[in-house]
Design brief:
278 residues, 2 domains, 13 helices
């Protein structure tokens, strides 16, 4: 009987935990649900107490595609995100491997200098970045928008911590078998840090997709606006047309959800392990 009581108590505790987690999840996802359904509403339905629209209509999406530069904003953001993500995966993982598995003078000093850049607020870097973009003619260009995110100190730190967990004996065995250092990196070390790379993809995607301040400063013309900048100008134009603003926001968040669904298993594992490696 005592065993049954303990088991019942455990079931009740787990049930209460699941209920709390479910309520928390609903509280977090409710704004997204409201935003999604509002994008199908007419202007006079916005302030209705009902979450669901009276009828799902696509006029808001048609207006967004025909009367704004949303497709152009989507293209610019996609180019920036794809290029920066590829660059970060290549350079951050390569530098992380170098700092973790190769021996050379001042290695730790270089690593600490890289980490020190994480303490510098982004706002303090805006002016040097802008001066640099002016000197090199990068204003109003794709490269001008993306160059601050082509390599990141956080990505180097994350991949280095994971590379520290890769056994040196495994790499030495590959070298004995005849692989050069690039082959060891690509064929042996890199596959061992997939969780870190997946987490890096998510972090970099979200950071560059949602970036606002730097693209706002460096993009001089409407054709080079990213999605956050474009939606900001669009919301100022339509003022209180919340159905249109919610439509634009819904379209902007879809790529983020797709990427998260694809990489969710890896990112959860990466976040769990990132604090344990090294």
């Amino acid at each position: 009987m005592a065993v049954l009581n303990v088991r019942q108590r455990r079931v009740l505790q787990q049930s209460a935990l699941y209920v709390c987690l479910t309520l928390g999840a609903l509280a977090m996802i409710f704004p997204l649900i409201w935003m999604f359904f509002t994008s199908f509403k007419t202007p006079w339905e916005i302030y209705d107490v009902n979450i669901l629209p009276q009828s799902f209509q696509l006029e808001n999406y048609q207006y967004l595609m025909k009367n704004t530069g949303f497709l152009r904003w989507l293209w610019v953001s996609s180019v920036v995100v794809v290029c920066t993500t590829i660059s970060v995966l290549v350079f951050d993982s390569l530098v992380g491997y170098t700092l973790a598995k190769l021996e050379f003078r001042f290695k730790n000093v270089i690593f600490m200098a890289i980490l020190a850049t994480l303490m510098v607020p982004t706002e303090m870097l805006i002016i040097p970045w802008y001066i640099m973009s002016v000197d090199f003619g990068l204003r109003d260009t794709y490269l001008g928008i993306m160059f601050p995110g082509l390599i990141t100190a956080f990505g180097i730190f994350l991949t280095r911590q994971f590379y520290e967990g890769v056994p040196d004996d495994l790499l030495d065995a590959a070298r004995i078998d005849g692989l050069n250092e690039l082959g060891v990196y690509l064929r042996i070390a890199l596959p061992q840090v997939k969780p870190a790379l997946s987490a890096l993809v998510i972090f970099n995607f979200l950071g560059n997709w949602n970036a606002f301040l730097w693209p706002l400063i460096v993009a001089q013309s409407p054709r080079m606006r990213t999605i956050p900048v474009g939606i900001s100008f669009f919301s100022n134009e339509v003022t209180t047309a919340w159905h249109l603003i919610m439509t634009a926001s819904t379209c902007a968040i879809v790529p983020v959800l797709i990427v998260f669904v694809i990489f969710q298993k890896h990112i959860i594992k990466g976040v769990q392990l990132s604090g344990l490696k090294g």
